[in-house]
Design brief:
mainly alpha, about 300 residues, 2 domains
Length: about 300
């Protein structure tokens, strides 16, 4: 009887160890969960504290005149009209350059490129470029677009520089969306007589489009808040006119906020806080648009 009891206890201990019901193991798992939850809550508390502080500083300046006035040496008269319009123009041009190139590159690398050293070399460099500091892209844009191509400090030069910045993000996200499409979709289309191009454009890409769209919007969200590349290529910090063509000089909301923060007057700091709030609203609009479009596309595909 004693041997049977000892054997049953050993079997129970082994079963508890295999099923993960060891009290010490459960205690460690609980400690890890609490630590992870604490890290998330700490980050959220700091983020909300910063947002509330910025919003309280910006409340006094968020008036219609702030959106319809040009920058001024007098903080009470200063506005973000040129910076807001310049930001919108730059994002439109950046989207026209980066979205087709990024999606096209992802389709080629995922659907057409053959596995080999060259393909692995390209994939490795794209992954590395996604982590390169933004100021490096600013130096590249300064040398290629401003000096070699002689685009000067224009809206076009800034948009091309931002396109280089977000291209790796779009390519990686689009490739992951294409990988998520089951191979049976491709084989089924080919078996029914479709060409490879027809299978990709009519079956694979529509299914991967929500993920591609998310990658594009994430790239835009990164570009809209960048300052270092634009300062490097020589974007102006004080403009009292609106850009009229891609070759016009320009400024953006991050650069305008940076200019106001660097001034000693507290009134300019309030203007900078208001510009940051407007920039946050634009980011929320972009992300909300991405979520809405992704949900709409997924519903359409599920029909």
């Amino acid at each position: 009887m004693i041997g049977l009891a000892a054997g049953s206890d050993a079997g129970l201990a082994q079963k508890l160890a295999l099923t993960g019901e060891n009290p010490w193991r459960r205690r460690k798992e609980l400690i890890f969960q609490l630590a992870a939850l604490g890290a998330i809550l700490l980050g959220m508390v700091v983020l909300f504290a910063l947002i509330i502080d910025v919003f309280l500083d910006a409340v006094s300046r968020l008036r219609p005149e702030f959106f319809t006035s040009f920058p001024s040496r007098f903080p009470e008269r200063a506005g973000i009209k040129s910076a807001l319009v310049g930001t919108i123009y730059m994002m439109v041009l950046t989207g026209l350059f980066s979205a087709p190139l990024g999606v096209g590159a992802a389709i080629y690398l995922e659907e057409y490129a053959r596995a080999g050293r060259l393909n692995r070399f390209i994939e490795l460099n794209i992954a590395n470029l996604a982590g390169v500091p933004s100021v490096v892209y600013g130096l590249l844009g300064l040398e290629i677009f401003v000096r070699v191509l002689r685009l000067e400090r224009s809206l076009l030069a800034g948009s091309l520089t931002m396109s280089l910045l977000i291209l790796p993000v779009i390519i990686i996200a689009s490739r992951e969306a294409l990988k998520a499409v089951p191979a049976s979709i491709r084989y089924g289309a080919l078996a029914l007589g479709a060409t490879r191009w027809q299978a990709i454009t009519r079956h694979v890409v529509p299914l991967a489009l929500p993920g591609m769209l998310t990658g594009v919007i994430l790239g835009f969200a990164r570009a809209i808040g960048e300052t270092a590349p634009l300062i490097t290529i020589g974007a102006l910090t004080f403009i009292a006119f609106l850009p009229t063509s891609p070759m016009s000089m320009f400024t953006t909301l991050p650069i305008q906020a940076f200019n106001w923060v660097s001034r000693p007057q507290a009134a300019f700091h309030a203007n900078a806080a208001a510009a940051i709030v407007v920039l946050l609203v634009l980011l929320l609009i972009l992300n909300s648009l991405a979520i809405w479009l992704r949900g709409r596309l997924q519903k359409r595909l599920s029909w």
